[in-house]
């Protein structure tokens, strides 16, 4: 019974180490982003407020490339900022104005399953003339409740050419979300704690078995010693009495 109680207590102590995977979605939706971006950067005055960002295409002659600086493994600690450098080269016929960068996290086997919309980073007056390349730093952070594992990151850079908005996909690949802070993850700590608890339970069980065997051995020994001591005491007590002589005579007659 005590062993069961100890096991339950150890489980209760280890339970806070478990983490529940949750995903937080940015409260700012795509339509509001379009309103802000187009309203701030449109030079032609055309009404583009109802256009969805997902329907934007890339402009001819505009190319992008991205890299995780000093992070070739593409590790993204949950809840911490991660930097992604985005280079945009304008080989088009007109200058372009960079509006902002956005990104989203998806499940790797189905991009329709959105995990998290990341923060939209806006740029003011970021103009790139023709035949010029510019690099932008996009800093993002996935939810601290996101379960460690492989996810797909899709990043877009939004810009306008002569008042018309466009976007290029600068990254569409896998990232590895890891837990932040410390060498050991919560799951590792829980497994270690559970292993120690099981070892303690095994030790208590072995100790109880040894104690039971020891008690049984001592009990048998006490009975034998007690019988001998009682017989010896009775012999001393009966020594010199008529009953002792009678018993002595009977034993001699039996021997004869």
Automatic annotation (TrEMBL):
Signal sequence extent: 1-23
Assembly and oligomerization: Heterotetramer of TRAP-alpha, TRAP-beta, TRAP-delta and TRAP-gamma.
Entry keyword set: Calcium, Endoplasmic reticulum, Membrane, Signal, Transmembrane, Transmembrane helix
Organism phylogeny: Eukaryota, Viridiplantae, Streptophyta, Embryophyta, Tracheophyta
Gene Ontology CC annotations of this record: endoplasmic reticulum membrane
Function: TRAP proteins are part of a complex whose function is to bind calcium to the ER membrane and thereby regulate the retention of ER resident proteins. May be involved in the recycling of the translocation apparatus after completion of the translocation process or may function as a membrane-bound chaperone facilitating folding of translocated proteins.
Transmembrane segments: 189-208
Subcellular location: Endoplasmic reticulum membrane
Family from the record: Belongs to the TRAP-alpha family.
Record organism: Brassica carinata (Ethiopian mustard)
UniProt remark on domains: Shows a remarkable charge distribution with the N-terminus being highly negatively charged, and the cytoplasmic C-terminus positively charged.
Primary location recorded for the protein, binned into one broad class: endoplasmic reticulum
Top-rank lineage group of the source organism: Eukaryota
Keyword flag Transmembrane: yes
The protein's name: Translocon-associated protein subunit alpha
Protein topology in the membrane: Single-pass type I membrane protein
Pfam families: TRAP_alpha (PF03896)
């Amino acid at each position: 019974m005590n062993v069961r109680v100890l096991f339950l207590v150890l489980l209760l102590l280890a339970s806070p180490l478990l983490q529940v995977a949750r995903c937080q979605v940015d409260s700012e939706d795509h339509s509001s982003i379009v309103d802000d971006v187009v309203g701030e950067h449109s030079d032609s005055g055309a009404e583009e407020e109802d256009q969805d960002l997902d329907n934007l295409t890339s402009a001819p002659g505009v190319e992008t490339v991205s890299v995780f600086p000093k992070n070739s493994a593409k590790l993204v600690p949950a809840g911490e900022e991660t930097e992604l450098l985005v280079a945009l080269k304008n080989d088009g016929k007109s200058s372009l104005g960079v509006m902002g960068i956005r990104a989203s996290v998806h499940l790797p086997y189905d991009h329709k399953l959105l995990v998290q919309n990341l923060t939209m980073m806006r740029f003011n007056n970021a103009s790139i003339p023709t035949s010029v390349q510019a690099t932008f730093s996009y800093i993002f952070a996935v939810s601290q409740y996101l379960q460690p594992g492989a996810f797909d990151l899709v990043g877009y850079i939004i810009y306008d050419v002569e008042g018309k908005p466009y976007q290029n996909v600068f990254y569409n690949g896998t990232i590895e979300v890891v837990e932040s802070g410390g060498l050991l993850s919560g799951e590792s700590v829980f497994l270690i704690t559970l292993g120690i608890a099981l070892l303690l339970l095994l030790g208590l069980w072995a100790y109880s078995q040894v104690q039971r065997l020891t008690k049984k051995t001592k009990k048998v020994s006490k009975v034998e010693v007690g019988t001998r001591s009682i017989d010896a005491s009775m012999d001393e007590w009966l020594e010199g009495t008529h009953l002792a002589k009678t018993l002595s005579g009977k034993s001699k007659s039996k021997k004869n």
